[in-house]
Amino acid sequence: MSNQNLFATLRAAFPKDLDAVAIETGESEIYSWRNIDQATARMANWLDSLALPASSRIAVQVEKSTDALMLYLATLRAGYIFVPLNTAYKATEIEYFLENAQPAVVVCSNQNHSWMVQVARQARVAHLFTLDDDHTGSLLEAAAGQSDSHEIAPADSSDVAAFVYTSGTTGRSKGAMLTHGNLLSNALVLKNYWGWQPDDVLIHALPIFHVHGLFVAIHGALINGSKMIWLNKFDANDVINKMAAATIFMGVPTLYVRLLAQPGLDASAVRRMRLFISGSAPMLIETFNAWQHCTGHMIVERYGMSETIMLSSNPVHESDGKRRGGTVGKPLPGVGMRVVDSAGKEQRPGVVGGVEVRGPGVFAGYWRMPEKTAEEFTVDGWFKTGDIGAFDALGYLTIVGRSKDLIISGGYNVYPVEIESRINEMVGVQESAVVGIPHPDFGEVGIALVTPKVGFELDVNTILSNLKSQLANFKVPKACVVMDELPRNAMGKVQKNLLREAHKERFTGYKWARSERRA
User: Fold this and answer.
1) 283 confidence band (pLDDT: 50, 70, 90)
2) How far apart are CA 126 and CA 298, in angstroms?
3) Residue 489 banded pLDDT, cuts 50, 70, 90
4) Is residue 208 within 8 Å of residue 61, measured between CB atoms?
5) Hey, what's the torsion of the CAs at 407, 412, 415, 421, to 10 degrees?
6) pLDDT 10s digits, 124-137
7) What is the Cα–Cα distance from 169 to 395, expressed in whole angstroms?
8) Which residue, among 101, 59, 58, has the nearest Cα to 80 in the 3D structure?
9) Mean pLDDT for all residues in the chain
10) Less Cβ around it within 10 Å: N or C end of the chain?
């Protein structure tokens, strides 16, 4: 049987000319395919030198860099499990992830090393290394002396390659285990469905700690043997300038909004571009229409989850249909998707219900949470996404909401219960509710509705400031409102739907006229 390690397939897709350019960075650094092969070999040999137990987790919280990319690929190559952690997470959040994942190796930035030492020691982590985006860190020093030749570790398609932390309405994070087979099958499907071509060049401007940037974008380019223009940070003007040498861009709706705000974006700036893809958060139809008006291109909206990778996409080929704004397209080849009512009965087109899926990309389960895994699957094997949507008569899916209180802001998942628990611990707070409302830049943002205890006056700026000191910035509500009481139903449950409705227009009013674009 051939080696089913994902890296083996990615490596086999490298061009015959290993000295051709594979990566060009925003700092004008050039990496060949041979450079990738050798750098990942050195890091994989370094990992092997640590004599780690089989299936060891490698937890990584570092800034985006080409070295971080090599570390991810080397982890696959060596047969270990990669655990990416959002760079915005603070010490109190990292504590849980390390206790839960129990990684053998943790890699962090130098600026976080002082507090990471304590957290790692508490979690009994055996090895702690540093890695920064300027090619420095103890990891690179340790790997420098290793051989640049490495035999790819054998793996079965069912072996776990990575897991990505997600959460539910309880606020307890769950590690969604993705196998080599999950990741490979999705990469191959997207290569065909999105029509990757031999001369395609990808602008990679996404973070690499979640599915979109780490799996969809990177795997797409590598499995097609395509060059990447690698940007450690998103800068709208820089991206527009790079489009003259690229053909594909992947982004979240927030990035498209910011690109539209630049006067340099027009049809001539994107004349070489072939494909614009958006996901990770809902895109407003205004953004979709404005992009088409400004550039002449229709954005391809797609839909996926940490637990499933990509599930559906608007068509790229005319033979598959037209692209339709406001929808996430049709199920990808090999993906089963249905919309059901509360009793599990499949709904007819046009009727809203819960979205359930199955297919080769659906994850292997939640790390060390068998009961929670079982809860999220139906008796006949479908995964319950928690999203609410409807198919139209042509088979296009529209997501209209989430059965769970998840907020997706700028492509990042925000879980209200986590924020509410922090607010409720503050002096003078009786209770709180965090809800998501539309936002023209981030797609959706959270706002906090807070009630005071008798005899207390609450200061909203103090509440938000306290949250900023405890949580990643993307989790902090964009507004806080003090109320006398929260609306409740007959059972005493807070009616968040009424709060969303009352505040849904708080951030509306942005105009799409070119004269009103903003940075």
Assistant:
1) confident
2) 49
3) low
4) no
5) -120
6) 999 999 999 999 99
7) 30
8) 58
9) 93
10) N
Lowest-confidence segment of 13-22, 32-41, 82-91, 162-171 by average pLDDT: 162-171
Predicted confidence (pLDDT) at residue 167 exceeds the cutoff of 80: no
For tokens 């999705």, what's the residue?
186
Enclosing H/E stretch for 116 = helix 113-122
CA separation for the pair 73, 58 (Å, rounded):
12
Strand 397-402 with 407-409, pairing:
unpaired
pTM equals 0.85
Q: Any residues with CB less than 8 A from the CB of 431 and at least 6 apart, and which?
A: 424, 450, 451, 486
Counting every residue written for the chain, the total comes to 519
Model pLDDT for residues 26-60, shown as the tens digit of each residue: 888 999 999 999 999 999 999 999 999 999 999 99
Strands 309-313 and 300-305: what pairing? Answer: antiparallel
CA distance 118 to 308: 34
- Strands (DSSP E) along 62-198, which ranges? 81-84, 105-108, 127-130, 160-167, 173-179
Residue type, 221: A
The answer to whether the beta carbons of residues 183 and 309 sit under 8 Å apart is yes
CA–CA gap between residue 18 and residue 21 (Å, rounded): 8
Rounded Cα distance between 15 and 6, Å, is: 17
Residue type, 65: S
pLDDT of residue 497: 85
User: Which residue in this structure is represented by tokens 């003259």?
Assistant: 244
Query: What is the rounded CA–CA span in Å between residue 251 and residue 206?
Result: 7
At 262, phi and psi to the nearest 5?
-95, 130
